[in-house]
Amino acid sequence: MSFSSNRYKQRKRLYNASWSSAIKLMSVPLSKDLKARLKIKSIPVRANDTVKIVSGGFKGRSGKVARTDVKRRLVYVEGITGKAQKGKTKLVGIHVSNLLLTRLDLSDKYRKLILQRKGVSPELLEKEPEIGVVEAPAAGEPETESVKSETTSPGETVSQTEAVGGKPTEEKKEAEGGS
């Protein structure tokens, strides 16, 4: 059996892939420390894993996987939201090729079996329910998403900061110097 390099046929195979093949296409590369510990390069992403976005509009942000869409190969990450049509906020889908897996959720016994098949020692899997390093913010400081500044009146600036998992906070600053 020969394989085609025709783009049309490749796209057709991608869209008509079986469910088991589609799940394999949901594989995400592991972070450097996970690669060193588990000695594997990638694994299909699941809910409750922690991922870091490495490319795209949300580059550099990380969060817990809320859900996955196997058919469209999208991952929905908590804290990565956009505006819906009626003004509500909803999760934004991130393609699996733009992600890096930083923490594994091992609460599912089938996932442990997958890792054992790939050669990970059962002792390592029994020690921890989750494997990986959590990147914590500095003591007492929330991890920020974005900062918006605007001038309301001469000499006064309002900056709005959205914290991850929190509500926006506003700060009013008087301009220094007189005039």
Automatic annotation (TrEMBL):
Name of this protein: 50S ribosomal protein L24
Keyword Cytoplasm tagged: no
A biological-process GO annotation: translation
Entry superkingdom: Archaea
UniProtKB keywords: Ribonucleoprotein, Ribosomal protein
GO MF terms, alphabetically ordered: RNA binding; structural constituent of ribosome
Skewed-composition ranges (Polar residues): 149-162
InterPro entries documented for this protein: KOW (IPR005824), Rib_uL2_dom2 (IPR014722), Ribosomal_uL24_CS (IPR005825), Ribosomal_uL24_euk/arc (IPR005756), Ribosomal_uL24_KOW (IPR041988), Translation_prot_SH3-like_sf (IPR008991)
Family annotation (Pfam families): KOW, Ribosomal_L26
SUPFAM superfamilies found in the cross-reference section: Translation proteins SH3-like domain
Segments forming domain KOW: 44-71
PROSITE patterns in the cross-refs: RIBOSOMAL_L24
Family stated for the protein in its record: Belongs to the universal ribosomal protein uL24 family.
Segments of this protein annotated with the region Disordered: 130-179
One Gene Ontology cellular component annotation held by this UniProt entry: large ribosomal subunit
